[in-house]
Amino acid sequence: MTTSAELSLYPLTPDYKEVIIDFIHQLRSQPGITVATNGLSTQLTGEYDAVMAALTEAMRPTIGGSVACSFVIKVLNVGIEPGADVEV
């Protein structure tokens, strides 16, 4: 089942850029997903298990790090292509 997730990371520190960039690098190293980024969020698309495993593995170092942060995640039961309309 193809799944997409849209997420935003909000590190609660003035030095937020490095935390976000490290997280995106973690996501891009995960197998079986497509990752797209823009100025507001990051989108993942792939099979459900691959998307959820990628989120778990990529979030682990950020959640376990020294910087307090907030993740906002939306999970869709359809595949999305960034910039394309999603049929409903």
Describe what this molecule looks like in 3D:
With 88 residues, the chain is α+β, with helices and mostly antiparallel strands. The protein has a single domain, classed as Alpha-Beta Plaits. Helix content is 33%, strand content 33%. The protein contains 2 helices and 4 strands. It has helices at residues 16-28, 48-63; strands spanning 2-11, 33-37, 42-47, 69-76. The protein has a 4-stranded antiparallel sheet with strand order 2-3-1-4. Strand 2 (33-37) and strand 3 form a beta hairpin. Helix 1 (16-28) packs antiparallel against helix 2 (48-63). The relative contact order is 0.30. The mean pLDDT is 92.
* Helix-and-strand structural type: alpha+beta
Q: Please give the largest β-sheet.
A: 4 strands, antiparallel
Strand order of the largest sheet: 2-3-1-4
How many discrete domains?
1
Strand-residue proportion: 25-35%
Output the radius of gyration. 13 Å
Termini distance? 16 Å
What is the number of E strands? 4
Looking at the overall shape, the CATH architecture is 2-Layer Sandwich
Can you tell me the overall shape? globular
CATH class: Alpha Beta
Q: Could you name the CATH topology?
A: Alpha-Beta Plaits
Mean pLDDT: 92
Write down the secondary-structure element order.
EHEEHE
* Helical segment count: 2
Q: Detail the poorly predicted runs.
A: none
Q: What is the subunit arrangement here?
A: single chain
How much helix is in the residues? 25-40%
Task: Throw out a few tags for this protein.
globular; 4-stranded antiparallel beta sheet; Alpha-Beta Plaits; 88 residues; alpha+beta
